[in-house]
Amino acid sequence: MATATIRDVARTAAVSVASASRALNGHPSVTPATRTRVLEAADALNYVPHLGARSLSTRRSNTIGVVLPDLFGEFFSEIIRGIDYAAHRRGLQLLLSNMHGSAQETAAALRAMRGRVDGLLVMSPQLDADFLAHNLPKGLPAVVLNGRIEGARHASIAIDNQAGAHAAVAHLVEQGCKRIAHLSGPKGNADADERARGFRDAVATMLGDHDPIVLAGDFSEEAGIAAGTALAGRDVDGIFSANDIMAIGCMAALTEAGRMIPGDIAMVGFDDVPIARYVTPALSTMRVHIAQLGESALERLVATIEADEPPEATAEFLMPELVVRASSARTGTVTSTKGPHDRTQGRVV
């Protein structure tokens, strides 16, 4: 059977070749109805773009697509650093794209990778399996980062957010905290929702608190400052923040308001971005080996690309490590970490 061409797709969808090409590459000028018609025609014909066809034989593009929710901030820069390190070691190039949040832009970013890359890494804290199945280029090897995708057809690597939140609360309780608040990430973000769920379960189990203070944030420093201002006069002696950047903003606002950290309020963040160890006081946090997460995802994707048969779509979960620094160390002495990247005092639990 002859391989379908873009002309076949255009003929089946009753559009011009140029329109078919724009639809397949996620161009914003294409109407949703036309894009849907072209994609359905491509699926029905098992169409593979020219570069993708070469990739399936002996000549690959040697390019990996990376689609992230954002390209700004220390978390994403660390993810990219890990991916780039592993790609450079293998002589691969990266093609980066930003989802920008909306479902339409996310779909366009995913489809724009069609025929241009050998495999795709996509961070998907807000996407479900149906969305990915409909929008990921058919037959393209992919690994999902940081997404618990039920029924997914692709391998995934995610952080065990609930277990990490539970460990953060347990540490604050060990430090004598009895009224612990949570600064959450944006609602609908899977990471934020799981950390909030882990927090609620932990304070209910350990402190009997079934109605804890939870302030909504958006992972930004500004949200942390607003939360610190709001909590400065509240009866709170511990705070678990859903990420480090909000925790740092929150500590700054609390200090400005005259609250002592950790004497009055102990603070724990999440992620262990590089700046966390340099602020004053140094921030206790749940360490996610962010760069390693990106590196592992790239290696797993390459293994999938090179496999003779598509491997099983398994999910891997990474447990964060508690790093105790000055922001929460009320009891005992904080000892020096052995890790080469942690130059301040702290200990990994």
Unreliable stretches: 51-58, 335-345
Radius of gyration: 23 Å
- The CATH fourth-level homologous superfamily of the domain at 161-289 and 320-348: Response regulator
Series of secondary-structure elements, N-terminal to C-terminal: HHHHEHEHEHEEHEHEHEHEEHEEE
Oligomer: single chain
Question: Which strand order do you get reading across the main beta sheet?
Answer: 7-6-8-9-10-12-13
Shape: elongated
Biggest beta sheet attributes:
7 strands, mixed
Q: What percent of residues are in strands?
A: 15-25%
Domain HTH lacI-type: 4-58
Organism: Sphingomonas alpina
Region (Disordered): 329-349
Keywords: DNA-binding, Repressor, Transcription, Transcription regulation
Overview of this protein structure:
The structure is a single chain. With 349 residues, the chain is of the alpha/beta class. The protein has a domain at 161-289 and 320-348: Rossmann fold, CATH 3.40.50. It is built from 12 helices and 13 strands. It has helices spanning 6-13, 17-24, 32-45, 50-56, 74-89, 103-111, 129-135, 161-174, 190-207, 221-231, 244-256, 290-306, and strands at 63-68, 93-98, 119-123, 142-145, 155-159, 180-184, 214-216, 238-241, 266-271, 284-287, 315-318, 321-324, 347-348. The longest helix is centred in the middle third of the chain and has 18 residues, at 190-207.
